[in-house]
From TrEMBL:
DNA-binding region: 124-218
Native source organism of the sequence: Breoghania corrubedonensis
Protein name in UniProt: Winged helix family two component transcriptional regulator
SUPFAM superfamilies, sorted: CheY-like (SSF52172)
GO MF, one example: phosphorelay response regulator activity
UniProt key word DNA-binding: yes
InterPro entries in the record: CheY-like_superfamily, OmpR/PhoB-type_DNA-bd, Sig_transdc_resp-reg_receiver, WalR-like, WH-like_DNA-bd_sf
Domain Response regulatory: residue ranges: 2-116
Keyword Secreted: no
GO cellular component terms listed in the entry, alphabetical order: cytosol; protein-DNA complex
Span of domain OmpR/PhoB-type: 124-218
Pfam family, one: Response_reg
UniProt keywords, alphabetically: DNA-binding, Phosphoprotein, Transcription, Transcription regulation, Two-component regulatory system
Length: 224
């Protein structure tokens, strides 16, 4: 899944970027408020990590503009410790959660996963598609209680589908969230990967909508 990281401190940004990539996210970084505003207003992201103290436009202004323009992606705000007024303003402006600096990277990852999960309508940490279960924390997948050993890209593809099940996902959307917007990748690459994934989880879980894309659905015979 594609994450926008907005942080002007290079060291902190590098640490956050590393843990997000290790967790399977595709990360785009903006160190300037104006660049961040433009990216968030024109691109689609699964979530945003937004520092409030930025050069150019400040984070709170960016947040308010995004929400005013109907940008609904989940946002985790980073604030200076003790800046409680910033946290209140951030939540009231439409932030989904906040984290005070300094923080543990594992907590940032957990909070980001939680707001993405809530935005997709999932109440529990694990994701379900009938008897197919995905555990984001441990990056494990099981089918009917049996562990599946998926390569990283197939795992990320399945995770994206399971976060967005019951809606059509386009080829372009999958390419951007798996590889980034400038990736040299075509629809055939995605089709081949989906074919491999179907052989492991069952062809009826990811259906093709010709001319539109794909949709992940719970097989009709299964309920969770």
């Amino acid at each position: 899944m594609r994450i926008l990281l907005v942080e002007d401190d290079r060291r902190i940004a590098t640490d956050i970027e590393d843990i997000l990539k290790e967790a399977g996210f595709t990360v785009e970084h903006a160190a300037d408020g104006n660049e961040a505003w433009f990216l968030g207003d024109t691109e689609e992201y699964a979530g945003v990590v937004l520092d409030l103290g930025l050069p150019g436009l400040d984070g709170l202004t960016i947040l308010k503009r995004w929400r005013a323009n109907g940008r609904s992606f989940p946002i985790l705000v980073l604030t200076a410790r003790g800046a409680w007024m910033e946290r209140v303003e951030g939540i009231e402006a439409g932030a989904d959660d906040y984290l005070a600096k300094p923080f543990q990277m594992e907590e940032l990852l957990a909070r980001l996963r939680a707001i993405i999960r809530r935005a997709a309508g999932h109440a529990t940490a694990n994701l379900y598609l009938g008897d197919l279960v995905l555990d984001p924390k441990h990056k494990q997948v099981s089918l009917k209680g049996r562990a599946l050993n998926l390569p990283p890209q197939e795992y990320r593809l399945l995770a994206y589908f399971m976060h967005h099940q019951d809606r059509v996902v386009t080829h372009t959307e999958l390419i951007e969230h798996l590889y980034g917007p400038d990736a040299d990748c075509d629809e055939n690459t995605i089709a081949v990967m989906i074919g491999r994934l179907r052989r492991k989880i069952g062809a009826d879980r990811i259906r093709t909508r010709r001319g539109f894309g794909y949709i992940a659905e719970t097989p009709a015979r299964q309920t969770h």
